[in-house]
Fold this protein.
Amino acid sequence: MICENKPLISIALCTYNGEKYIEKQLDSLVSQSYTPIEIVISDDSSTDGTWNILEKYAAVYPFIKLFKSRINLGFTKNFEQAISFCNGDFIALSDQDDIWDTDKLSILYNELGDSDLIYHDSNFIDENDNPILGKKMSDHYNTYDGSSNLPFLISNCAAGHAMMFKKTLTQKFLPFKDGYYHDWWIIFVVATFGKIKSIPDVLVRYRQHDLSITDSLSLKATSTMDRNKGYLNFNLNWIEHCLTLPNIKNKEEIEIIYKQLKSYKEGSRGMKLFIFLLHYYHLLFYFHIKNKSFISRLNLIRKISFG
């Protein structure tokens, strides 16, 4: 029987002082049903036992490639480094403390179609691998398919650990700029120059704990205001950063949105803001309007416009 030649998929894994969870994640990566793969690990100058664990696995699995930074780069630049070392036709990003489904890469590859980036749903687990509230990522955020970059001006629904993309796109989004989430920038750029696909499959157990970089469930929020910050705070620096992208799609509309939100940040309130938010509601709050009634949406706009 002649086997179909399949493209190499690179897993870009970043580590830093991750000895507590890294072995469970590595076990799930080396057990992927898809082949061929390479696991490119960039360690950000760990000071615990992480590097020794990585060397142990690399000695057993020749498709693991290790790189250790001489100085601490921070997670954004560490991912930039890991991605730059990848040789595969496709790249999947990996955090050090999650657990992947064995068929994750097989499913992503088979479902990709003509899209340039694909991402999936995830379950939440705590530090002891127990499900958190029985929740999935999609229970909190709407997902997006398509080729518009506008929904990603305010928020992001695709975490880095869930995405796989074509390597050819790296020339569009590298290098990363410090101060912005690398996965948000990746999907914004891909939405500008390509096509995004979302699938409902739950393919990662996504760990939330005290040392997590992200807080997807707002477990660390201390007040209702913190939990609603996605509605009330717009990152103007981020939108301005998006506008630096050469040949950016929807540039004029993004400039209009930036100007109005800048006025909001400077204290402008009233009917003009209300009309603007009403017109752009499904764009500005695209990922946060899940299960909200029309009355609830109007009430939110009213609070922002006249509060």
Observations:
- Residues 84 and 171 are 10 Å apart (CA to CA).
